[in-house]
Write a structure and sequence with these properties.
The complex is a heterodimer. By secondary structure, chain A is α/β, with parallel strands linked by helices. Chain A has two domains: 138 residues, Aspartate Aminotransferase, domain 1 (Alpha-Beta Complex); 254 residues, Type I PLP-dependent aspartate aminotransferase-like (Major domain) (Aspartate Aminotransferase, domain 2). Chain A contains 14 helices and 17 strands. In chain A, the strands form five sheets. In chain A, strands 4-10-9-8-7-5-6 form a seven-stranded mixed beta sheet, with helices on both faces. A four-stranded antiparallel beta sheet of chain A has the order 13-14-17-16. In chain A, strand 7, helix 7 and strand 8 form a beta-alpha-beta unit. The longest helix of chain A is centred in the first third of the chain and has 21 residues. Chain A is globular and about 70 Å long. Chain B is globular and about 45 Å long. In chain B, helix 2 crosses helix 3, helix 3 crosses helix 5 and helix 3 runs parallel beside helix 6. Classes of the chains: A alpha/beta, B alpha+beta. Chains A and B meet through helix 12 of A and helix 1 of B.
Chain lengths: 405, 126
């Protein structure tokens, strides 16, 4: 049985009728839909177990704490993190990248260098610009080549004794390029730089093993991987987390507090100030369990087949340009494209009239749009529930677009 | 929740016509004021050039990369402003443009309509 046939009935929202057509949801890279098991787990938690975590000495508090910490164990197993202390909950990828930038930022000196890439989402660029401005550091970018891959020779030339951080996306949210994490981490390590990987577009689609990737930080969101909004994960290598002062303060992240100083809590709570997103953690557990039941290798295979068909299908439509790796090269579950003479927002609005949801615009990657020489693109993206039939409906609709405006 | 409009309700004949054959697109040699702004949502860019003589808007031309709705709006804004006093032109609002476009524009696309109006105000303020 195909993966979409196996999962379809678990996602109630996919039965929605939009503009008289059954919804074809091709915007999972922006935010996926979630299965009933996630929605029910969160509702059950609120109806049965909710209290604040960690210091509530009563039954509900203990249950809530147990459920919250269970999420950490599930995520640890799912991403292959060596220890549970390395799994820190955040509010999402943007929050996690901001937390890392602020935390590392405190250690930066004037003239230190932060290397990003031209294909970064603004979330992995702006936090670095902010700390660079505060600390007198410099932000440099690895160029993107015409085939959508990063210029690693240029990376080697950029890396130097002042490089403190190399921050890059595992999978581009526009091009779908899968960047060679292990190779890039090893190059950065030669000059002693910390590596920060934005995994928002990789975690929902690839089997991951933090111990094999060797990066110092890896960040992602639950809402792109069948889980709820409002929670994300910052994996941090233990030796690195141990060496860093917390970037943000509040309750929960301390052991003992005086008026003018405090002693920090143990990992991972040292990086989790304030009441965490507890129900969201419960939802994340359900999402991870859902993925594990499906098997990530199968998920990757299903989505790769959909992306491959979309790339060749779009490429065969006159006037359509497809961005990113050419057909036959592995890519994430996104395909960005443009149609001559049609603005991406008009493409998205016309497809919506057929019940087809795609993303359009700069995809929070304006520097990359500048490299591509466009103001924006339209983007179709896929998840476990996306069917080959939906890809065909989408391709037919794109082929008929020009006649509609 | 109200259903989103069909393509026909959004892309009215007026919008299609003005997007395909805008009447006021182009350069304006002898412009006395120009202004440009960007829609942060989509990166669309609209530039308006005005020729103002003795407080009268004599001519308006627009340029830029934009979607069909924004292009149509810019064309209508240019048309509405032409021949008016700068004071009257500055009073042109979203409703005036929507009335001409006859489109059921949703909140997510409203900035496509208002961007040219903002740019007109910027140019008139010079």
């Amino acid at each position: 049985m195909r993966l979409d046939e196996l999962t379809r009935a678990d996602f109630p929202i996919l039965d929605r009728i939009v503009n008289g057509r059954r919804l074809v949801y091709l915007d999972s890279a922006a935010s996926s839909q979630r299965p009933r098991s996630v929605i029910e787990a969160m509702a059950r938690y609120y109806e049965q177990n909710h209290a604040n975590v960690h210091r509530s000495i009563h039954t509900l508090g203990e249950e809530a704490t147990e459920l919250y910490e269970l999420a950490r164990d599930r995520v640890q197993r799912f991403i292959g993190a060596p220890t549970r202390e390395e799994v820190v909950f955040t509010r999402g990828t943007t929050d996690g990248l901001g937390l890392i930038a602020e935390t590392i930022g405190r250690t930066l000196q004037r003239g230190d260098e932060i290397i990003v890439t031209e294909l970064e989402h603004h979330s992995n660029l702006i936090p670095w610009q902010l700390v660079a401005r505060d600390r007198g550091a410099v932000v440099k970018a690895v160029p993107v080549r015409a085939d959508g891959t990063l210029d690693l020779d240029a990376l080697d030339r950029l890396l130097g004794p002042r490089t403190r951080v190399l921050a890059f996306a595992h999978v581009s949210n526009v091009l779908g390029t899968i960047n060679p994490v292990v190779d890039m981490v090893r190059r950065a390590r030669r000059v002693g730089a910390l590596t920060v990987v934005d995994g928002a577009q990789a975690v929902p689609h690839l089997r991951l093993d933090m111990s094999a990737l060797e990066c110092d930080f890896y960040v992602f969101s639950a809402h792109k991987m069948l889980g709820p909004t409002g929670i994300g994960v910052m994996y941090g290598r233990r030796a690195v987390l141990d060496s860093l002062e917390p970037g943000r303060g509040g309750s929960e992240m301390i052991k003992e507090v005086w008026i003018d100083h405090a002693q920090w809590n143990d990992l991972p709570w040292r990086f989790e100030p304030g009441t965490p997103p507890i129900a969201e953690a419960v939802g994340l557990t359900a999402a991870v369990e859902y993925y594990e039941k499906l098997n990530m290798d199968r998920v990757a295979e299903h989505e790769a087949a959909l992306a491959a068909r979309a790339v060749t299908g779009l490429g065969a439509i006159p006037g359509v340009t497809v961005y990113g790796p050419p057909a036959g090269v592995p890519r994430g579950a996104v395909v960005a494209f443009a149609m001559d003479g049609l603005h991406p927002h008009d493409v998205a609005a016309l497809l919506d009239a057929d019940g087809i949801a795609v993303r359009a615009g700069h995809h929070c990657a304006m520097p990359l749009m500048r490299c591509l020489g466009v103001v924006g693109t339209s983007r179709a993206s896929f998840s476990v529930y996306t069917s080959p039939e939906e890809i065909e409906l989408f391709l037919d609709a794109v082929a008929g677009l020009r006649a509609k405006l | 929740m109200t259903p989103s409009p069909s393509a026909g309700a959004l892309y009215t004949d007026v919008i299609r016509e003005r997007w395909r054959r805008p009447r006021h697109r182009g350069e304006l040699p002898g412009a006395t004021a120009t202004a440009e702004d960007v829609n942060p949502l989509c990166g669309d860019r609209v530039r308006l050039a005005l020729q103002v003589t003795n407080g009268q808007v004599e001519a308006v031309r627009f340029a830029g990369d934009s979607c069909a709705i924004c292009t149509a709006s810019a064309d209508v804004v240019a048309e509405l402003a032409t021949g008016r006093s700068t004071r009257e032109a500055a009073a042109i609002g979203t409703e005036d443009v929507l009335e001409v476009l006859r489109s059921d524009v949703r909140p997510t696309r409203m900035r496509c309509v208002t961007l040219p109006i903002t740019v007109l105000a910027m140019a008139l303020a010079q």
